[in-house]
């Protein structure tokens, strides 16, 4: 490997997962054509990689923020293209990064043009999920299980309950990154984590009520109203939490349904919503071996299914509805339209909606590998998630900033609120 060519990652080779890192190459020959590569291994041992061809300028320099890729995993000026365009080394694999304690390690390298190409320079990018000073505390209290993330300092901070997806286990990525941006975040598992059941047949809102009360009791939380963020199946859970439970000031719904789906919903031991079911025979096979499943759910608007619609007009807080128009898992845009029409019909204006034409189902914190398809636990087969990689990546950057702005605006807190809350807690303690 040549010691002359230099590959730099700016402003630092270590950054947060959701931060843009600038890739620059220097000391090449004037107008030299090279291949720049990125490679990473996820928590399941799956290798993801990307590559792009660049031509150096007259000074022998390449700047991915400025220069276009001539070919490879993408073309054109894409400053973070090597990150979002990484693909798995086997079909139907989704990038797995759920543990917040270890960084997402990406190896960048520069190679001579043609074939494998001799390596000229390399650099390692550590993309951490927890910013400096963020505290991570596993929670095993009452009936719920999760992990609490708290920013450095005494606060007060806005609080968010992260439901992530409906799958078993626990994902810490989004929660830890939100905490790194100044939020107290509790991410909870519904099943399949720690000593919890491996599967469930019904969902109880009491579980989330307990989690919300836990969040509100935290010393660093300065507002009695919390936020809720969701994705996919947990989208309808978030709607129900906002509609039936007190203390929710802001709810982010991402690519979910307008009805309670898959499992009946209970509260105080009584069923409050039946489940909108699906017909797996409606999935459409494709040549890739993955299936399209955005039409498997029954129509929530038919007379026999209307009971599953969530009465979101009861919610006291505000909603941010986020729909990907190329979602091949749910018909998210249609479900969002149903909710917007329902709220307007009830004279409600407590919502805003955002659509992304070229995005697919899994809208996550930005700069992770785009996932075209992976195994679906409910369907029991690999499915297509939809979206065009470049458009999907741009949507993730945009919505990630919008989510933070939405929560900060609605859940802002100050020292006066925090002092008042502490006084109330002290009085309550003295009365016990």
Provide an overview of this structure:
The protein is α/β, with parallel strands linked by helices. The protein has two domains: 6-128, Immunoglobulin-like; 135-415, Alpha/Beta hydrolase fold, catalytic domain (Rossmann fold, 3-Layer(aba) Sandwich). Helix content is 21%, strand content 30%. It has helices spanning 81-84, 173-180, 205-217, 233-244, 332-345, 389-411, 415-431, and strands spanning 6-10, 14-16, 22-26, 33-41, 47-55, 62-63, 71-72, 87-88, 104-112, 119-128, 135-141, 144-150, 159-164, 184-189, 203-204, 226-230, 248-254, 265-267, 270-273, 284-285, 291-292, 318-324, 351-356, 373-376, 381-384. The protein has an eight-stranded mixed β-sheet, sandwiched between helices. It is globular, with a radius of gyration of 23 Å.
In one word, what is the shape?
globular
Structural class: alpha/beta
| Overall structural domain count | 2
What is the radius of gyration computed over CA atoms, rounded to a whole number of angstroms?
23 Å
Number of helices: 7
Describe the secondary structure blueprint for this structure:
Layout: E1 6-10, E2 14-16, E3 22-26, E4 33-41, E5 47-55, E6 62-63, E7 71-72, H1 81-84, E8 87-88, E9 104-112, E10 119-128, E11 135-141, E12 144-150, E13 159-164, H2 173-180, E14 184-189, E15 203-204, H3 205-217, E16 226-230, H4 233-244, E17 248-254, E18 265-267, E19 270-273, E20 284-285, E21 291-292, E22 318-324, H5 332-345, E23 351-356, E24 373-376, E25 381-384, H6 389-411, H7 415-431
Parallel strand pairs: 2-10, 13-14, 13-16, 15-18, 16-17, 17-22, 22-23
Antiparallel strand pairs: 1-3, 3-6, 4-5, 4-9, 5-7, 5-8, 9-10, 11-12, 12-14, 18-19, 20-21, 24-25
